[in-house]
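so the lab meeting is tmrw and i was supposed to have these ready like two days ago... anyway. pasting both below. for each one the top line is the aa sequence and the line under it is the structure tokens. i havent really looked at them closely yet so no promises
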Amino acid sequence: MRKSIFMLLTLLLSSSVMASSIGLSSHPFVMEKHIVTTQFDSYLSNGSGMGIAARYLNRMNEKINMEAGFGVNDGDRASRFFAGADMMIIPDYGRQPRFSIKGLLQTESVEGERINSFGAAPTVSKGFSFWGNEAFPFLALPINVGLNTDEGTYETSTALATGITGRLPFGNFRDLVGNLEANFSLRNSYTSIVAGVSLPIQ
């Protein structure tokens, strides 16, 4: 099972959406209720550019995580504001992976036009031990409807998101949670890579 997931992640990351569709939504925080994240975004297609984003996640209860944030980029995607809510349907237990559905909302400026989008991302994740450190690979399928308010048109998009989250295994940084995510366009979306560091707060 571990070898299959590793091979799948390697294959996906070697191939050429909305940056960070999933983030830490599927990470199993136990005690912490507030998580603050800073992340680096890199769009690789359809308006390429780099930027930064800040996210806040609130663990409402053991089944629901809610988040909001904003980001700025130096490419065609100048700025964006986003929110989401992840609802766990099946928990990560034994050999059984976690399954959840994340609702997505976003408004962004793309080439001077305002695009408002909404959608959902079915997500599968599973905890594994890597060299004595627990980490949580995930795979998701974000599906969105984007509304162009300037032109009065809409467009549907589909992407594949894959990544991993886990506590940083470095000395004094073990209280921090890192995440790495790649999004690949399947239809009318774009490719992005995201890396972030989060501080859980009780």
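ok protien two:
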Amino acid sequence: MNAKELYNELQKPMYDNRPYSRMKDWGEGMEIVEEVIDGYWRERFLINHNNKEAFQLMDRGLTLTFISKEDVDWDGVETLENNHNAYSFSAYYQRFAVEKFKNGVALVKWTLYPDGYYFMDEDGYGMEDNDESALYGFIDKKARVVIPFQAKGWEELEKQRPEAERRAKELNQKQ
């Protein structure tokens, strides 16, 4: 299904109700469609209402479908503890999140492995002694990676926003 066909599919009323949910105002005519998978809301589709296009971010198996090996800083991945989900493009753990769009780009967080609190039960048992392993990157309005996913904090990656905006603008001018 191409981007226009997926857009038309996602306009059907079935995507307005559980197991789907619309996050409508994602900035600049953008929207996210979430789906409940394994009991958690997952950001599955990116919709560009201005261009009437939609893009799948992950499949129902929680594999990211919009990225390739070239879209990841693998040297940085190697420095992370619990980095195995990067190699299979797995978004199994919460939180995979697309921030709101600003100047044509959005910062994306891809959690490879959550911090130890994730595993704790209501009585405080089961907690692991680890920090979160996460990657951050920037995408444009066509879900193209314009700044590769890196093992840096969001504050550090946010400094690359001007370059992400420049690259997104350059990509759009080529079309």
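from a quick look at the 2nd one: The CA atoms of residues 16 and 22 lie 7 Å apart. The longest helix spans residues 161-173. will dig more after coffe
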